[in-house]
Please model this.
Amino acid sequence: MSATGNQQNSTGEGVLSRLDMLLEHYFASLRLLKYGTPSVAYCAAELELSANYFGSLVKRETGISARDYIMEKLFAEAKSRILSREKNINEIAYELGFRYPQHFSRSFKKLVGESPKKYGQIHL
Model:
Protein backbone atom coordinates (compact mmCIF):
# COMPACT_ATOMS: atom_id res chain seq x y z
CA MET A 1 0.00 0.00 0.00
CA SER A 2 1.23 3.49 -0.75
CA ALA A 3 2.24 5.93 1.95
CA THR A 4 -0.81 8.02 1.04
CA GLY A 5 -3.10 5.04 1.62
CA ASN A 6 -1.53 4.36 5.01
CA GLN A 7 -1.85 8.01 5.97
CA GLN A 8 -5.52 8.13 4.93
CA ASN A 9 -6.33 4.97 6.90
CA SER A 10 -4.80 6.39 10.08
CA THR A 11 -6.74 9.66 9.94
CA GLY A 12 -9.97 10.04 11.83
CA GLU A 13 -11.98 10.12 8.61
CA GLY A 14 -10.27 7.00 7.29
CA VAL A 15 -10.82 5.22 10.59
CA LEU A 16 -14.52 6.11 10.58
CA SER A 17 -15.06 4.78 7.07
CA ARG A 18 -13.20 1.58 7.97
CA LEU A 19 -15.20 1.31 11.21
CA ASP A 20 -18.47 1.77 9.32
CA MET A 21 -17.50 -1.06 6.95
CA LEU A 22 -16.45 -3.27 9.88
CA LEU A 23 -19.75 -2.68 11.66
CA GLU A 24 -21.76 -3.21 8.49
CA HIS A 25 -20.14 -6.62 7.98
CA TYR A 26 -20.45 -7.47 11.67
CA PHE A 27 -24.17 -6.63 11.69
CA ALA A 28 -24.80 -8.58 8.48
CA SER A 29 -23.14 -11.70 9.88
CA LEU A 30 -24.29 -13.86 12.76
CA ARG A 31 -21.72 -12.29 15.11
CA LEU A 32 -24.32 -10.13 16.88
CA LEU A 33 -26.29 -13.25 17.73
CA LYS A 34 -23.22 -15.11 18.91
CA TYR A 35 -21.12 -12.37 20.53
CA GLY A 36 -23.43 -9.38 21.07
CA THR A 37 -22.56 -5.79 20.32
CA PRO A 38 -18.93 -5.34 19.32
CA SER A 39 -16.81 -3.67 21.96
CA VAL A 40 -14.55 -0.68 21.48
CA ALA A 41 -11.56 -2.97 22.11
CA TYR A 42 -12.76 -5.42 19.43
CA CYS A 43 -13.23 -2.67 16.84
CA ALA A 44 -9.87 -1.09 17.65
CA ALA A 45 -8.10 -4.45 17.33
CA GLU A 46 -9.82 -5.19 14.01
CA LEU A 47 -8.67 -1.79 12.74
CA GLU A 48 -5.17 -2.46 14.10
CA LEU A 49 -5.25 0.47 16.52
CA SER A 50 -4.92 0.75 20.27
CA ALA A 51 -8.26 1.15 22.02
CA ASN A 52 -7.22 4.53 23.46
CA TYR A 53 -6.06 5.93 20.12
CA PHE A 54 -9.16 4.58 18.38
CA GLY A 55 -11.44 6.09 21.02
CA SER A 56 -9.69 9.46 20.72
CA LEU A 57 -10.03 9.49 16.93
CA VAL A 58 -13.73 8.64 17.04
CA LYS A 59 -14.36 11.28 19.71
CA ARG A 60 -12.44 13.92 17.76
CA GLU A 61 -14.28 13.18 14.49
CA THR A 62 -17.81 12.68 15.86
CA GLY A 63 -17.96 14.43 19.21
CA ILE A 64 -19.19 11.24 20.89
CA SER A 65 -17.43 8.27 22.45
CA ALA A 66 -16.54 5.24 20.37
CA ARG A 67 -19.03 3.18 22.40
CA ASP A 68 -21.82 5.66 21.70
CA TYR A 69 -20.89 5.69 18.00
CA ILE A 70 -21.11 1.88 17.87
CA MET A 71 -24.48 1.99 19.62
CA GLU A 72 -25.79 4.64 17.21
CA LYS A 73 -24.82 2.40 14.31
CA LEU A 74 -26.44 -0.60 16.01
CA PHE A 75 -29.71 1.27 16.46
CA ALA A 76 -29.57 2.59 12.89
CA GLU A 77 -29.46 -1.09 11.91
CA ALA A 78 -32.38 -1.74 14.26
CA LYS A 79 -34.40 1.03 12.60
CA SER A 80 -33.71 -0.45 9.20
CA ARG A 81 -34.78 -3.91 10.32
CA ILE A 82 -37.93 -2.56 11.97
CA LEU A 83 -38.93 -0.74 8.79
CA SER A 84 -38.29 -3.83 6.64
CA ARG A 85 -41.14 -5.54 8.53
CA GLU A 86 -39.57 -8.93 7.86
CA LYS A 87 -39.29 -9.76 11.56
CA ASN A 88 -41.08 -8.79 14.75
CA ILE A 89 -39.45 -6.66 17.45
CA ASN A 90 -38.46 -9.65 19.59
CA GLU A 91 -36.74 -11.37 16.66
CA ILE A 92 -34.89 -8.17 15.79
CA ALA A 93 -33.78 -7.77 19.41
CA TYR A 94 -32.33 -11.29 19.47
CA GLU A 95 -30.67 -10.86 16.07
CA LEU A 96 -28.99 -7.70 17.31
CA GLY A 97 -27.48 -9.52 20.25
CA PHE A 98 -29.90 -8.57 23.02
CA ARG A 99 -30.69 -11.40 25.38
CA TYR A 100 -33.90 -9.71 26.50
CA PRO A 101 -36.25 -7.90 24.10
CA GLN A 102 -37.30 -5.59 26.96
CA HIS A 103 -33.72 -4.34 27.27
CA PHE A 104 -33.63 -3.71 23.53
CA SER A 105 -36.92 -1.77 23.68
CA ARG A 106 -35.76 0.36 26.64
CA SER A 107 -32.41 1.10 24.98
CA PHE A 108 -34.09 1.88 21.66
CA LYS A 109 -36.55 4.28 23.29
CA LYS A 110 -33.76 5.99 25.24
CA LEU A 111 -31.65 6.54 22.11
CA VAL A 112 -34.36 7.10 19.48
CA GLY A 113 -37.03 8.74 21.61
CA GLU A 114 -39.83 6.29 20.87
CA SER A 115 -40.43 2.58 21.31
CA PRO A 116 -39.50 0.23 18.46
CA LYS A 117 -43.19 -0.53 17.86
CA LYS A 118 -44.15 3.14 17.72
CA TYR A 119 -41.14 3.88 15.51
CA GLY A 120 -42.32 1.25 13.03
CA GLN A 121 -45.86 2.61 13.04
CA ILE A 122 -44.85 6.24 12.56
CA HIS A 123 -42.13 5.80 9.96
CA LEU A 124 -43.79 3.35 7.59
Q: What stands out?
A: The chain is about 75% helix and 0% strand.
